[in-house]
Write a structure and sequence with these properties.
By secondary structure, the chain is of the alpha/beta class. It is built from 12 helices and 11 strands. Helix 4 crosses helix 5 and helix 10 runs parallel beside helix 11.
């Protein structure tokens, strides 16, 4: 197994107490596969990959759980040693990750000489190879970040991440700020690189269509916890957790007769407050009183969901297709 995240807990210190941004998340990344982390904004996706990379903000800390990379438990020293060499990170905004006062080629050369130990001549040759790998011309190595389009900057950021030949790539919303044509191009670059280099990837996104297009497996997060996971085709075709059913309803189906998108009412909970049971209860039309008491362990082999009514998933899935189902929240949770 390339990566194992086991009961990960990440807390952020705030004026009003600790915010449990990630609260017991567990999932795996098999070797040579692309795993998508999907969910609403604030569900803990970015915090999870930043914790894996060891680049949390100053007020963030790992309060529990562990991250295991190729059999090694990741402590601070191990993470520092493996960062960029074995585990690399593509941020959401490439413009923020590239220094505006240096050419992109100079920044690549610095990574390759200082971190990779290459000579400057070898680093320049490697930079040209990396640009070719992501579909950029070698001539653009002498340009500054502001001279690149958004899609080209994202390709350059991917080249930077691949400079030291990592085996795991963490990509945080790599196509969010791009138009749909460029999004498709970047996703195709990522898929091509994964196939050519045999690397594993974790892709953070709020767009379930990106997961459907690119990923092999999907991990659905809600309020800092994993509520469902498994092979992409299985999870999207037959979701077993009501939250995943709701996400699927918000994804347009071009082959369906109706194009109505059904939103999930309400908002995620405040992660600074004490929480118990399933955190989706106030927004779930299928919730029962027992759902507020405790969170059941994820059930199933391969395709897993953390829902007390997992055994009724087939009937719930049919009901979830009716837009009227989502016009009501849990009646007992609102009382």
């Amino acid at each position: 197994m390339m990566l194992e995240v086991d009961d990960l807990q990440i807390h952020y210190g705030t004026r009003d107490g600790a915010a449990r941004a990630v609260d017991g998340a567990s999932f795996v990344v098999p070797e040579g596969r692309i795993v998508g982390l999907v969910g609403e904004s604030g569900c803990g996706k970015t915090t999870t990959v930043r914790a894996i990379m060891g680049v949390l903000s100053e007020n963030g800390r790992q309060a529990g759980g562990r991250v295991v990379f190729k059999g090694q438990v990741m402590d601070e020293a191990t993470t520092r040693r493996l960062r960029w060499r074995d585990i690399a990170y593509v941020p959401q905004s490439a413009m923020n990750s590239l220094d505006p006062v240096y050419t992109v080629g100079a920044q690549l050369t610095e990574v390759l000489t200082r971190r990779g130990g290459l000579s400057r001549a070898a680093a320049r040759a490697r930079s040209a190879e990396l640009f070719d790998l992501v579909g950029l011309s070698e001539r653009r190595l002498g340009d500054y970040p502001h001279q690149f389009s958004g899609g080209m900057r994202q390709r350059a950021a991917i080249a930077m991440a691949l400079a030291l030949e990592p085996s795991l790539l963490l990509a945080d919303e790599p196509v969010t700020a791009l138009d749909v044509i460029v999004q498709r191009q970047i996703l195709d670059v990522l898929r091509s690189l994964q196939q050519r280099l045999g690397i594993s990837m974790v892709l953070v996104t709020h767009d379930i269509s990106v997961v459907a297009y690119l990923c092999d497996d999907v991990v659905v997060m809600y309020a800092g916890q994993v509520v469902e996971s498994g092979p992409v085709r299985e999870v999207l075709a037959r979701p077993r957790h009501p939250y995943t059913m709701g996400l699927r309803n918000a994804f347009p189906d071009l082959l369906a007769d109706a194009m109505e998108l059904v939103p999930i009412g309400g908002s995620p909970p405040d992660l600074r407050e004490p929480l118990s049971g399933c955190r989706f209860v106030p927004r779930c039309p299928f919730a029962q009183p027992a759902c507020s008491l405790d969170l059941p362990p994820a059930a199933g082999e391969g395709h897993r969901s953390a829902c007390r009514r997992d055994g009724e998933a087939d009937s719930l899935r049919i009901a979830a297709l009716d837009p009227r189902t989502w016009q009501r929240s849990s009646s007992f949770a609102m009382s």
